[in-house]
Amino acid sequence: MRREAALNAAILVALIAVPAWAHLSDEPFTITLATRAVILALAAVGLNIALGIGGMVSFGHAVYFGIGGYAMGILASHAQSYTPMELFGLSIEGTKSMLVIWLVAVVLSALAALVIGLLSLRTSGVYFIMITLAFGQMFFFFSISWAAYGGEDGLSIYVRNGFPGLNTLVPIQYFGLCLAILLVVLWFNARLARSPFGLALNAARQSPARAETVGLNPMRLRLVAFVISGAITGLAGALFADLNRFVSPTMFSWQLSGEITVLIIIGGVGRLMGPVAGAVVFVALEHLLGGLTEFWHIYLGAALLLVVLFARGGLVGLIAGRPGGGGGGHG
């Protein structure tokens, strides 16, 4: 436990030190890479609540990532063009306020996760995976056909949205904002895993029948966790869209759902810092190997294969010397 806690602290120190060095060395691109890693880690932390604690293998979490991204894109585009949007006969003004955009992204993602969860959680195993994947594809093709907001070409936002007291156009300040959100969500995740709800959810994951005999409702526990997971992933989508100032249907793609899952597997399923470690490794491989060959995913696949075969607890479990995972590794 102490070894894993020390490793978690080392990961956070590295995540802060590299952008700080890049800022002092005037390397804004490195800061942008670190920001990308932090946002992907946030999305993976959201999925890890469903996967690591609840045992729900969702292959459609890009739905919530995309909803968060499009919430940002649509609101910011209307603020940018000074034209209101029409919704159910109501005229709604756009906004460049991150706080408002985050609230909208979280609420819409949570509502989508509630509806999808009510339908998907009636099944289990491969059927649950396929239903979540089907919802992801539905949203993907809907966004392609949504010509009002760019269709398959996506939607560009030419300004960075604002946060009180910060100049979000400065890379190090936007990184700090994203890192602060990640730290809050990691703290929430750790508290959730140790709370009575988290312990009950873990029990329902291990043995639903035994959980029911002591008066727990596994369906309800999983649904709440699924909604929380979707809301956090939606927030990550809004941050990601603001980072790139661009949204497109690829934010709903099944490939993105797979990438978020891969981040967790590489870092360690059920580990508190597993998603963060996985995101850092993924972005580093993407940057370093992507410059050598466009087929860099081959090396990512090889790394994933090695982790699955020889490090069942992911990189965090391997280094910390605790091979077991699956919800019990929140340290």
Automatic annotation (TrEMBL):
Pfam families per record: BPD_transp_2 (PF02653)
Membrane topology, as annotated: Multi-pass membrane protein
UniProt keywords, alphabetically: Cell membrane, Membrane, Transmembrane, Transmembrane helix
Domain of life, source organism: Bacteria
GO cellular component labels: plasma membrane
Listed transmembrane segments: 34-55, 62-79, 99-119, 126-149, 169-188, 223-240, 260-285, 297-320
Listed GO MF terms: branched-chain amino acid transmembrane transporter activity
Principal subcellular localization: membrane
Subcellular location per the Swiss-Prot or TrEMBL entry: Cell membrane
Name of the protein in question: Branched-chain amino acid transport system permease protein LivM
Naturally occurring in which organism (per UniProt): Candidatus Rhodobacter oscarellae
Phylogenetic lineage: Bacteria, Pseudomonadati, Pseudomonadota, Alphaproteobacteria, Rhodobacterales
